[in-house]
Amino acid sequence: MKALITGITGQDGAYLSELLLSHGYEVHGIVRRSSSFNTARIDNLISTHTKDNMLQLHYSDLLDSSSITNLINNVQPDEVYNLGAQSHVAVSFQNPILTTQLGTLGSITILEAIRHLDKDVKFYQASSSEMFGGSSKDMLNENSVFDAKSPYGASKVFAHEITKIYRESYNVFGVNGILFNHESPLRGETFVTRKISKAVGRIAAGIQSKLTLGNLDASRDWGYAKDYVKGMWLMMQHNQAEDWVLATGTSKTVREFAEEAFKLVNLNMEDYVITSEKYLRPNEVDYLLGDSSKARNILNWKPEVGFKELVKIMVEFDINEAKKDVALLNDNLISPTWEYPVVK
Ligand code: NAP
Ligand code: F7E
Fold first, then answer.
1. Residue partners of 335: CB distance under 8 A and separation at least 6
2. Which of 12, 150, 234, 317 is the most buried (most CB within 10 A)?
3. How remote is the C-alpha of 217 from its chain's centroid?
4. Residue 277, class by beta-carbon neighbours within 10 Å (0-12 exposed, 13-18 middle, 19+ buried)?
């Protein structure tokens, strides 16, 4: 089996590649050219799986439709996972056009290429709970109404709908995985869970004094990314293409996540967390809670890692990272404070 993954260098791309390689897939991934290396999350896979060509990387970009189409024609994958995106909601308000172009043109470019290929290719679209908007406390499932609150959410609604349209119109095997938030030590450092776990590790190591956050009352259904990539693969093995929700069924606030994280290093979050308006968004998704009973019943999928264990996995990882930072600091190789200067 051959899989092509867009977004292979991201959190989910890294875990999904690892899973597919363990199932014997030949994995192809697209990598954007950047001025510094951007493959840190998959460097371990590169070192073990590129020698025998089981992992192959190609320069491309979701906005370069000709390169994406050529790649699909050349690789002739059995499965395409479209994980590439500008995935940060706050940044989508700052870069709305790019976020929208990626979300919309990326998905339709791949669907068009697949439709014209003389081969049955399965397509996975990374849909998101952000499409629901989070204004009510209802449990959300595959039939819940979309009410996106950001350019990011709106671009995901387009990609979701166009996948359904290609499924119904052209019989393309197009799957929408509506995934609620999923986190891990590979989570980008400007998403709130990783921002917290990283700060807790550094505060415990004595190299950071405060953590500045935005809305502490926002509530999310947070699961573990490794569990969710298994769900993606299961959806693609099901006998028909459908929409599926993956979620834990528990919603916790940002404050609860921070409290739990600080508790693990015997500290009280109130002593370290301050809030700033600069991390508030023009429009907020207040509350998300997912109902994944369809995936649990039909795909036999279930999340293995619960909230407390997730926080523990992330904080323990970042305690170790902070120890490495202390060593670098002692050698004057990094500056004493760490706060990402641009983004939320
Ligand atoms: P992520 O860590 O931000 O990774 C995003 C990936 O997209 C990276 O590999 C990035 O490449 C790539 N990318 C960005 N711009 C691109 C472009 N122009 N062309 C090709 N690739 C591009 O995101 P993630 O958390 O793994 O999420 C994977 C997918 O699931 C995304 O589509 C996200 O929107 C969606 N999703 C995520 C969650 C969640 O909670 N994590 C929930 C629901 C849906 P670089 O490494 O070069 O930046
Ligand atoms: O924010 C609040 C913020 O940026 C979570 C993406 O993977 O999941 C992710 O989107 C909540 C929001 O993730 C800070 O206002 C408070 O209410 O970690 P986040 P997200 O916006 O939920 C969905 C499902 C996706 O599809 C997306 O791709 O936390 N919050 N203080 C903060 N958020 C950030 N980033 N930074 C703060 O300081």
1. none
2. 12
3. 22
4. exposed
Ligand 2 contact, 101 CB (< 6 A): no
- Rounded to 5 degrees, φ, ψ at 255 are -60, -45
> 241-269: per-residue pLDDT in tens?
999 999 999 999 999 999 999 999 999 99
> Using an 8 Å Cβ cutoff, are 139 and 249 in contact?
yes
Q: pLDDT (tens digit, 9 = 90+) per residue, 189-225? A: 999 999 999 999 999 999 999 999 999 999 999 999 9
Ligand 1 site, CB within 6 A: 6-7, 9-13, 30, 32, 34, 38, 61-63, 83-87, 102, 126, 128, 179, 181-182, 188
Q: Crossing angle of helices 225-237/11-22, nearest 10°?
A: 60
Domain boundaries, the chain: 2-183+221-246
Amino acid 344: pLDDT = 46
Q: What is the DSSP letter of 140?
A: B
Residue nearest to atom 15 of ligand 2 (CA): 215
* CA nearest ligand 2 atom 19, residue: 191
d(CA 28, CA 197): 31
Q: How many CB atoms lie within 10 A of CB 108?
A: 17
CATH architecture assignment, domain 2-183+221-246: 3-Layer(aba) Sandwich (3.40)
